[in-house]
Amino acid sequence: MPVNTPSREYLANIEPWQRCRDAYEGSDAVKGQGRKYLPSLDSHKRNPNGYNEYVLRALYFNAMGRTVDGLAGSIFQKPPIWEVSEEVEEFIEDITLTGVTAEMFALRSTRNIMITGRWGILVDMGTAETEDKTPARPYFVGYKGEDIISWATELVGGDQRLTMVVLREFDDDPDPTDEFVRKQAEQYRVLRLSKGKYTQEVWTKIPNSENFIKGKTETPVRRGEALDFIPFVFMSAISIEPTIEKAPLLDLVDVNLSHYRTMADLEHGRHYTALPTPWVSGALQGDEGGGDLSIGSGVAWMLDKGGSAGMLEFSGAGLQSLVTADQEKRKMMAILGARLLEDIGGAETATAITMRYSGDHATLRTIAAVLEQGFTKAIKWVEWWVGTEATPEEVEAEVKLNKDFFAAKAPAGDIQAALGALQAEQISYQTFYNVLSEGGWSREGVDYEQEREDIAADRKINMEAAAEVQKAMAEMQAEAAPPPEAGAPAPDGGAPPEEGAPPEEGEPAEETGGEPPPEEDEPTEEEMAAAEKVAADAEEAGEELTEEEFYTRVAEELSKAKKAKK
After folding, report:
1. What is the SS3 assignment for 411?
2. Measured distance CA(451)–CA(442) in Å, rounded
3. What is the pLDDT of residues 428-444, one digit of tens each?
4. DSSP at 174
5. DSSP string, 180-220
6. Mean pLDDT for all residues in the chain
7. What's the pTM?
């Protein structure tokens, strides 16, 4: 058998996969399949060109595409978290060696799983340095379900191990006769595990033939040793096993295509019934039975006695059944997953939104969990390939995806109620922070412990800033105070000390340079508030204040506060 021989499971699922793929791609893909999705009418047997007009008028409402993009977007409304080493973190910005980031690769994977319920990731290793002398490194290669032709597993030590995978690929080869023309070449990559050794083969199709040529067998190695497993992970809507599962939105696709046929009949009927058609009975004066009749504001028909004319218009409920079918099928598509098609009027509470989408949550959570497992397994292979661990299972790496779908932000009233409970010592701060986090009021990826550390750090910074303000203001007041006049009475009302006289007993000796500096007091609440406001305003405006500018603005804020009190 040739290398492109598909498995029985593949043959049983390729037609539903194609329906799902066409439905997602949209109107051009669906209409391009012609009579496969839209059978011709009996009248088209007599008028073959009429079918083309029938298809052109038909409307394809892409509920499948909107549903897939909407549900995939709900998973990626928060970016994935890749917990990897610093070395592998550099790979995240180009996980495929083609400029695709890990997040975009994950989004593409999610869409394909929702479309066909099948996706695969091969972790491959470059064989040589790139043109810019960058060392070879592992990278991801994604495969659609339609391109995973066949596979095989064996029971080894109580575990099912993957022993073979055949993958279809398409490569653009330059035309030897024209440098501006590129031809798409079909080839098959065979991943094989034989006698505990992983190898790759590439079979290239011979032009104008159904035969293939086997290329050189490659043996990917890690630290000079061949791998003892195939680094390929299968992904479906419910597991990372090789078994093919039903496409999660196949029922929606079937209703979507049925709706397309309904709309084709409805538009066909409207075309023939919506426009009034003139009619004439009886002979026209001077008409000999030949020629066309003209109609318009400058034309009059002169009829013989007994003749009549009028406009033929449609009446009755003939098309209403098609209109009803259109509405019913739209509702069915909404139930089957196209929640974004519903037009929900008015405001909804967070509880109502959660209940309305509870059916979708189960499917999305399952898909998100499978994606996490598959990506975690693949990224561990990458870490292991460049690391020192003995096995991939020893690698500490993980991928986390958002599972909070269609989240509604908690209203401010709920937050105020929780704050009141915290102030009344009815709940702990950790419980209060959980309310903020679940209600969408906290920073993404920041837990309770980190928030407490940040609060303590901010308090310390504010205290230090307020102390600096207090010190600066004291210095400014000292500089602004006039020097005491000679012979002026002492502060206690006694005679001024004679110049050069020794200090009295118990009186500190006068230091060179003036009076001793005043003791620094703790900053007041007003001073701390002014310092915090100046710092916040500068950060919001993106300004970098010098020390003098900072103290000046704080003094201005204090002055404003005093005037406001008066």
Report:
1. coil
2. 9
3. 888 888 888 877 778 77
4. E
5. EEEEEEEEEEEEEEETTEEEEEEEEEPTTSS-EEE---B--
6. 83
7. 0.68
